[in-house]
Design goal:
The chain is built from two helices and four strands; from the N terminus they run βαβββα. It has a four-stranded mixed sheet with strand order 2-1-3-4, with helices on one face. It has one domain: Glutaredoxin (3-Layer(aba) Sandwich), CATH 3.40.30.10. The protein is globular. By secondary structure, the protein is α+β, with helices and mostly antiparallel strands.
């Protein structure tokens, strides 16, 4: 089974809009849901959709306006 890839935009706009916190939330929830073996989590440079941030990509699919509720939805779909 291949791992899911989650890329968290750490460009200045997304970082300021909440991806610093989102990264911490993702790390915590991945451990709590025992998804460590199924998920590769990365910080990445700007993914060029700053106006809709904070942005993350999961398996190549971009999610915009990400918050804790959206993160929970995304991780539920992965498990």
């Amino acid at each position: 089974m291949s791992k899911h890839e989650i890329k968290v935009c750490m460009g200045s706009s997304c970082y300021a809009r909440g991806n610093e916190s989102n990264l911490n939330i993702l790390e915590k929830l991945i451990k709590e849901k025992n998804l460590d073996a199924q998920v590769e989590l990365y910080g990445t440079n700007c993914i060029a959709n700053c106006g809709k941030g904070p942005n993350i990509k999961v398996d190549g699919v971009e999610y915009n306006g990400v918050d804790e509720e959206k993160i929970n939805e995304i991780l539920s779909d992965l498990s």
